Amino acid sequence: MLISKPEDSRIKNSTTLLLLLMKHDGISRAEMSRLTGLTKTTISTIIKKLKQAGIVEESDQIATGNIGKSPYPLHICSNAAYTIGVHLGRKRVETLLIDSRMKVIKKNKGEDYKHLGPESIMKSLFLNIDKLFNSAHKKNIEIRAIGVGIPGPLDIENGIVKQPPKFQGWKDVPVKEMIEKKYQIPVWIENDASVGALAEKWLGDGKDIHNFIRLILNEGIGAGVVIEDELYQGTYDYVGEIGHFLCFDKGKYSYLEDIAGVDILLEQAQKSSLKVNNLQEFKKLLVGNKNNSKKAQEILSPFASWIGSAIINAIHMIGPQTVFIGGKMAILGDSFIQPVQQFVSCYLFGNQEVDIRYSGISSDAESLGAGIYAAVRWLEQKGKEI
């Protein structure tokens, strides 16, 4: 058993309090002590240093009506860590700028990629980040870090995008190094489904749910996994890759995202002579004239079954309280989620109740989660200096 050095304990305690402050705005020192088990003296010492560093502030005392000293609510300073969150998706780049209280200052959505090679996509990425830096400069905002959510597989420790499916020409691209070289600030990358789950935990309906899975259903399919309130990242950065669940379809094994991705749905609709270019148009067909509506529903039905099957497998493996569905497929509403729920209900093993519903946060979940991820990592580094 390793015995922590005093310095290690100090760093751990500072980091613990910073994360607590981010999650629980207005928390008191007494409540911090109750939640962490740290002494009030230890907490007061750390908070004093965080205040001196311009990271933490406190507001006026709150009268509780109880005997004794009234508490001072504590807050992360909104300007402690402005960060940029990036979703490097398979169709376009989405970016936003947030403060350390996770308030969105500005966001951009790039144009659809004309080419899928690394050079073209990174050019679009830099263009969108430049816009945020220009906006921040006008407001005298200093950006501290950048977080990037991107489809895996990834080498997260070294910031390398290995070889994501449906990303032509991408192999071992040092995204972290490329962005840090241009902007000279820390950069962290993480799987886009995982940062989507992080956003769900911090800002969405997952706040009070201890164990959940959040699916991202786009051209690629993935899942972020939260276990006991923490984002589970695994050993090899391959957590939640349900898009690579094997499915036996038409006499051969295929990966889930190769038979149930958004691009596959639209391709099948077009092959069936339905005039659709995006999911919004497909949704209109579902409630449109009788013939096209029936045809669209027949096309969608096996997709709901494949996703339902993947959800069942994930539930039986992880045992979540809730499964959130995010990504582009969520635009289809009840026409999609109801058959998914029915499929899961039919085949779920045991009597457990698992809530399957759409994600409670916007389509910005992945870029927002990436910004939060960068803020947390940056504040963790600052905690080491306190």
| Main sheet properties | 5 strands, mixed
Per CATH, what is the topology of the largest domain?
Nucleotidyltransferase, domain 5
Tell me the strand percentage band. Answer: 15-25%
Write the H/E string, N to C. Answer: HHHEEEEEHEEEHEHEEEEEHHHHEHEH
Bin the helical content.
40-55%
How many independent structural domains?
3
Any idea what the radius of gyration is?
23 Å
Q: Could you give the distance between the termini?
A: 27 Å
CATH architectural grouping of the largest domain: 2-Layer Sandwich
- Form type: globular
Structural class: alpha/beta
Count of individual beta strands: 16
Average of the residue pLDDT scores: 89
Uncertain runs with pLDDT below 50, 5 residues or more?
1-6
CATH top level label of the largest domain: Alpha Beta
The CATH superfamily of the largest domain appears as ATPase, nucleotide binding domain
Read across the widest sheet, the strand sequence of neighbours is 5-4-3-6-9
| Count of DSSP-assigned helices | 12
Quick structural overview:
The chain has 386 residues and is of the alpha/beta class.
Name the features.
386 residues; alpha/beta; Nucleotidyltransferase, domain 5; 3 domains; five-stranded mixed beta sheet; 16 strands; 19% strand; disordered N terminus
Explain what this protein looks like in three dimensions.
With 386 residues, the chain is an alpha/beta fold. The chain has three domains: 6-76, Arc Repressor Mutant, subunit A (Orthogonal Bundle), CATH 1.10.10; 82-192 and 365-385, 2-Layer Sandwich (Nucleotidyltransferase, domain 5), CATH 3.30.420; 205-358, ATPase, nucleotide binding domain (Nucleotidyltransferase, domain 5, 2-Layer Sandwich). Helices cover 43% and strands 19% of the residues. It is built from twelve helices and 16 strands. The protein has helices at residues 6-23, 29-36, 40-52, 118-138, 175-183, 192-203, 257-260, 262-271, 279-286, 290-318, 334-347, 365-385; strands at 56-58, 74-76, 82-88, 93-98, 104-109, 143-150, 154-155, 160-161, 187-191, 212-217, 221-227, 230-231, 246-249, 252-255, 322-326, 355-358. A five-stranded mixed β-sheet has the order 5-4-3-6-9. Strands 12-11-10-15-16 form a five-stranded mixed β-sheet, sandwiched between helices. Strands 1-2 form a two-stranded antiparallel sheet. The two termini are 27 Å apart.
